[in-house]
Design brief:
The complex is a heterodimer.
Chain A: H1 6-15, H2 18-27, H3 34-38, H4 45-57, E1 61-63, E2 72-74, H5 76-111
Antiparallel strand pairs in A: 1-2
Chain B: E1 3-11, H1 14-22, H2 24-30, E2 36-37, E3 44-45, E4 52-59, E5 65-76, E6 80-85, E7 90-98, E8 103-112, H3 120-140
Classes of the chains: A mainly alpha, B alpha+beta.
Chain lengths: 113, 142
Amino acid sequence: MTILDERLDATFAALADPTRRAILARLATGDATVNELAEPFDMTLPGVSKHLKVLEQCGLISRTRRAQFRPCHLERERLDAAADWIETNRRIWAQRFDKLEAHLRDIQDTSHG
Amino acid sequence: MAELTYTRVFDAPRELVFRCMLEPEHLTHFWGPAGTSAPLDGITVDPRPGGVFETVMINDADGGSYAMCAVYTEIVPPERIVWTEPGTGMITTSTFTDLGGTRTEVRIHQADVPDSFRSPEDQARFLTSLDRFAAHLETLVP
């Protein structure tokens, strides 16, 4: 159903930025340090750190404390929750459209005889 | 800002498809997704900017219900209908495009309501519509 709770709201807001999506795509292939993440982008380390903070705050990534470089880790669960919501919403409209299609057929058949 | 778009082409004239999206007598036939129904007496349509658009979807299996309360912000027959759901912060735009013959494309675009839309007036209007909805529900329960 169309319920955007606060957590999903924050997730979608974080996903709305292309750089952050690229960072997530990179992390999907494995953990990475800030330096490694900054490399493909023409960005300063503080710039990348700012994006990482947004991703961390909404729970899309976590950063381990064990190593000096604090590698970033993708939290798939949160990403899945966002994907689930989109899928549910998509299905609702697909099913509505199916029913509307049948309804339009019915009323046009009737009106034509 | 999250955005989602759903498109479908229907074999029917645009005016008719537009009316289906705006008239309770039609909405009741398709508003509830599979496994649910949207009873006519649970649909309120006040087709003008600021007017309410309310539906109740009933789960056929367990009788559970889900209410949607929205407010129209734009109605341009037979081209466009826009409503917002102040409770969820969602803005839904339905666009109807005449593809010639009797084919019509319906495009549903959903996005978060910009913060500027979440004015005190919007909130008040939403609460009023909720009150009306509650009163409407009371008339249904003996």
